[in-house]
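#help-structures

NK: newbie question. if I give both the sequence and a SMILES, will the prediction place the ligand too? trying with flavin-adenine dinucleotide
OV: yes, paste both and it writes out the complex. here, I ran yours:
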Amino acid sequence: MQELDLIIVGAGPVGLYAAFYAGMRGLSVAIIESAQVPGGQPQNLYPEKLIYDIAGLPAVTGADLTKNLLEQLAQISHRLFLGESVQKIEKEEGIFSVTTDKSTRRAKGVLLTTGAGLLKPRKLGIDNEETLANEGKISYFITSLKEFEGKNVAVFGGGDSALDWSLMLEKVAKNVHLVHRRTAFRGHEITVDRVMSSNVQVHTPYTFSNLIENELELKKIKSEESLNFSIDKILVNYGFLTNQVTLAENLEVSRNGRVKADSMMQSNIEGLYVAGDASDYPGKMPLMSVGFGEAVHAINAMTKKLEFDHPLRGGHSSSIF
Ligand SMILES: Cc1cc2nc3c(=O)[nH]c(=O)nc-3n(C[C@H](O)[C@H](O)[C@H](O)COP(=O)(O)OP(=O)(O)OC[C@H]3O[C@@H](n4cnc5c(N)ncnc54)[C@H](O)[C@@H]3O)c2cc1C
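OV: that's the protein plus ligand as structure tokens.
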């Protein structure tokens, strides 16, 4: 089997950009993604939210960012395998074998852009939760704000995500109730202030007690007091459990399960690089603009270190295309 120059594991924003950059430098590249759609967190967790800190894009939704990244990627030759979970990466005689639940592919270099791993939302923790989620009464993220138009919504959570979504829902929903089990929110002060001066009805310190038909009952923490109101939908924003599996034997990971990287984004295994949320080093910031830069570092380091049997392209992108 003819090996590729590079296999990228994970088609989140960083993996998609890394694939474009590698192709632009002249590497043969394949991306393997476990989900059925590329785009990672922005596409799956917050497709309609506006992102403001991507250079050159004043404001872009998660879905549009993915669309733009795919358009950029389409400029170079590549393979994108969706719906395949990478389970094992092995290195033998300088060549990596990347094994998924469907096949094994070989490459001279591997770049891990697995982000936070395979994401699973934290649940509310009630008995009939799965049934309510299947009926669309309980959601863990919003893929379309339209579903909440004119509805009475209860948002559970105390972090930035719960605060941000409450503010966005306020624009389309009939009523928004924000329920948090503590008195203080964990989010940015400025967002908390915006929520407090909005029409969002804040209930603290309360937690879920019961839901009968559309009648939601909240229980006050350490108290017998309760509160009832009518809701159509519940949004649970308790964060995500990550399933960050160690893909290669002896791969050094830090306590949070992220792969330790050196200053050129190489792991402790030569030829195995990491970028984006999957990487860790002193001062690491889990932001996309940082991840894009890490991908550039990794690809350029790789092109210097690994031996390829064909010429690569150097220079500025403005003189390549
Ligand atoms: C609500 C919210 C708002 C945010 N807002 C911003 C913002 O405004 N600005 C900003 O810069 N960042 C923001 N972030 C963070 C940003 O989304 C992440 O930093 C970014 O998604 C990281 O990109 P990534 O490609 O490294 O990983 P991810 O987006 O996590 O993508 C990783 C991909 O790898 C795949 N994968 C994982 N394991 C495997 C495997 N074994 N085999 C195959 N595929 C695998 C996953 O399915 C996923 O598609 C926000 C995050 C959230 C949750």
